[in-house]
Amino acid sequence: MATKIIGVGNYIPTQTITNVFFDSYLFLDERGNILKQDNSTIANKLKEITGIEERRYAEKEQNTSDLGFLAAKEAIENAKIDPNTLDYIIFAHNFGDVAFGTIQSDMLPSLAARVKHKLGIENSSCVAYDLIFGCPGWVEGMIHANAFIKAGIAKRCLVIGAETLSRVVDIHDRDTMIYADGAGAAVIEFSDDNAGLKSHLSASFTAKEKDYLFFGKSYNTDSCSSVRYIKMNGRKIYEFALSNVPQAMKECFDKSGFSIEQLKKIIIHQANEKMDEAIVNRFYQLYNLHAPENVMPMVIHKLGNNSVATIPSLLAMIMKGELDEHRINKGDVVLFASVGAGMNINAFVYQF
């Protein structure tokens, strides 16, 4: 018995935001002082470290649940199923629907319920709920769905990851340039095929690491102090990820029973190109190997970091043949891994 992906979909917003977009921004440090470097230098440094040249923003009339619905619709069409046959809809996000130009998060009803409504699902036995787990939310949703299927509670699930981070950024914080919007989704079901989800791992580090990503006030001291924005301690996150993610990936992969030579791709959360490269290199070093060329697809250059959407969106792009250098064939073994707010780490091994 296995949990098998039968359909994938994504939604990439149409607004392309280049680094030039931020030329007129007034970037400040934590104390409210103007940064010494000009914005062009800051943007070039960002590109050098993260790889980000562009990112996508949702249209003003779109919200996170809208993006999630579009990705879900495509996944359902790709799976060629009746949406009323879904037993669970799991929607991973972090900030709910934040309408353009507002500062209030809206999660009532849940985003999963909104998607179920938009899909026209009348089956009341289809359970819809939201999952808040930081950037690893979609991977965790897949682990939840797998557990439901393995326990016999469900036969078919829809797992969505969507976010509009452009709505929760501090325009005076240079980290604003990292974040983006997007959505991805997958339909999974029970299968007696040999393919499917083979192993998984999840972990939460909260002793010292809880506030590496947090909601904080604007760097502009004249702004309303009660308004909060996404903030991060980039150095701490980088050090945490390199110290903990490779080992977690190895533990998960070893549980799968495959040999490291069988691993074809690593689909990792698109957070920072240099960080992801370092994680993958350290993972292979644990096997006394060098990372193979082309093992890690990257799309952060053009799409930025859209949190829970990075992994399912990237998977859909590969499966739709949109990345010339990357293919996934029947029988291929793929390792999915993510790290994010919490601090949470998770991974699963999947054979296609």
TrEMBL record:
<keyword id="KW-0012">Acyltransferase</keyword>
<dbReference type="Pfam" id="PF08545">
    <property type="entry name" value="ACP_syn_III"/>
</dbReference>
<dbReference type="InterPro" id="IPR013747">
    <property type="entry name" value="ACP_syn_III_C"/>
</dbReference>
<dbReference type="GO" id="GO:0044550">
    <property type="term" value="P:secondary metabolite biosynthetic process"/>
</dbReference>
<dbReference type="Pfam" id="PF08541">
    <property type="entry name" value="ACP_syn_III_C"/>
</dbReference>
<keyword id="KW-0808">Transferase</keyword>
<dbReference type="GO" id="GO:0006633">
    <property type="term" value="P:fatty acid biosynthetic process"/>
</dbReference>
<feature type="domain" description="Beta-ketoacyl-[acyl-carrier-protein] synthase III C-terminal">
    <location>
        <begin position="254"/>
        <end position="351"/>
    </location>
</feature>
<feature type="domain" description="Beta-ketoacyl-[acyl-carrier-protein] synthase III N-terminal">
    <location>
        <begin position="129"/>
        <end position="202"/>
    </location>
</feature>
<dbReference type="GO" id="GO:0004315">
    <property type="term" value="F:3-oxoacyl-[acyl-carrier-protein] synthase activity"/>
</dbReference>
<protein>
    <submittedName>
        <fullName>3-oxoacyl-(Acyl-carrier-protein) synthase III</fullName>
    </submittedName>
</protein>
<dbReference type="InterPro" id="IPR016039">
    <property type="entry name" value="Thiolase-like"/>
</dbReference>
<dbReference type="InterPro" id="IPR013751">
    <property type="entry name" value="ACP_syn_III_N"/>
</dbReference>
